[in-house]
Design brief:
By secondary structure, the protein is α/β, with parallel strands linked by helices. Helices cover 47% and strands 16% of the residues. Helix 3 packs across helix 4.
């Protein structure tokens, strides 16, 4: 690396430190309402900074909804919640054309998807036609109602939750939609100490007020800065090696994984792994990506992008185990 490059990276590092100063402020504000669950809060910030949608999976009562609502309040954004149910219609999500008797013409009534933060609660409770109503919004950041196309507000973030336990009356998400989620995070139970604080907070009915500490413009500026984070060619190669190992494991001496996987990560996996790594470095106030950043976000980016065979399910092999095997074998730069 030349002296000029080193100087540039040093200057970029200083810029990132300055631009990412609000992260602590945002974290502190959200943690007024959320006890523990630092992993979940950090992943919500990753999605916010990289413009990626997030799928949260966890049993009820783990503050998934509260965390999302607290984040939207702290960012001073418009929040809407859609409770997905079996009788929900696509029009209930994106909106529809309503006939106005006074003007004797059809007018557009926008749905709850027109917000900065859209909480799709228990997304797997609705059939595929409703889930797919979100597809255009998630991918194109726009919605078509009748003959008109409306551009959605920025930032636009879909945060979907699903319950992994109760499968009765649920509809698995189509692969095409699952792939559009940048991260899939599995949320666990809080620790004993955290739960003690949760009990006290709720029993004492402590009222928590979340104040807006970051503006929408600051978030949009931060998103631009995240993309400026330096990523060396060796890190790019590391990301490619990891993703390609999910498609052709035999090329990385992982022949044992071949019968366990139906398919591997798509090019979206590579793009999102690079973006999430940059956002993770930004959160850590660093202007460059290191291999640890890639490993830190790898499970969340790839978890839902690897298709397991019946053989893997019969042997109780999880995608997490496959990712661990890949990370153990792929050479770290």
């Amino acid at each position: 690396m030349s002296t000029t490059q080193l100087t540039d990276i040093k200057a970029l590092n200083e810029k990132i430190k300055e631009k990412s100063a609000f992260i602590e402020l945002l974290n502190m504000e959200v943690r007024k309402a959320i006890v523990g669950q630092s992993y979940m809060v950090e992943r919500l910030l990753l999605g916010l900074l990289s413009g990626g949608h997030i799928l949260l999976e966890g049993v009820p009562g783990l503050a998934k909804t509260l965390a999302i609502k607290s984040l939207s309040t702290a960012v001073d954004g418009k929040f809407s919640r859609i409770q997905f149910t079996p009788d929900l219609l696509p029009a209930d999500v994106v909106g529809t054309m309503i006939y106005n008797q006074k003007s004797m013409e059809f007018t557009v009534k926008k749905g709850p998807v027109f917000a900065n933060f859209v909480l799709a609660d228990e997304i797997n409770r609705s059939p595929a036609k409703v889930q797919s109503a979100l597809l255009e919004a998630m991918q194109e950041k726009q919605v078509t109602i009748g003959e008109k196309t409306f551009v959605l507000e920025r930032p636009f973030l879909v945060l979907a939750t699903q319950n992994p336990i109760e499968q009765e009356g649920t509809y698995p998400l189509p692969e095409a939609q699952v792939d559009r989620f940048m991260l899939k995070c599995t949320i666990g139970y809080p620790t004993k100490e955290d739960e003690r604080l949760i009990i006290r907070q709720n029993v004492n009915q402590e009222k928590v007020t979340i104040n807006p500490v970051v503006s929408i413009n600051e978030i949009m500026e931060a998103r631009k800065t995240v993309r400026e984070v330096y990523m060396d060619e060796k890190i790019e190669q590391y990301i490619l090696d990891i993703v390609f190992a999910t498609r052709t494991p035999e090329t990385h001496k992982l022949e044992k994984l071949k019968p366990l996987m139906n398919y591997g990560g798509s090019p979206r996996a590579s793009i999102n792994l690079a973006l999430a790594s940059k956002a993770y470095a930004f959160i850590k106030h660093r202007g460059y990506v290191i291999p640890e950043d890639v490993r830190a976000v790898c499970y969340d980016v790839l978890r839902h992008r690897i298709g397991l065979t019946y053989e893997a399910e019969a042997e109780n092999v999880t995608t997490e185990q496959i990712i661990s095997d890949i990370l153990d074998v792929v050479e770290v730069p």
